[in-house]
Amino acid sequence: MPRFTDNWVVDRTMFDYVQGGSCACCGFPHIFAPGGLEGMIGAMSDLETDAANDEINAAKASPWPPDLRDQIWGDRLLLRFKMKKEMRVYREFLEGVVISNNGADKGEEVRIKDAVPILQQFCVDELSPKQLRGIFQLPRSELTEQLKSKYKICSAYAIVFCGVVDQVANFKVTGYGVDARIGSENDVTEEQFEKELKFEKVGPGFCLNISTSNNGNEGAVNEEMLSMFLQRMVSLAGPTLLARAAKTSHNDDESDSDANGSEDASEKNESKTTSFRSDRRVIRLLIARYWADRLIAKYNEAHTAAEEGVQ
Question: How much is the pTM?
Answer without folding.
Answer: 0.84
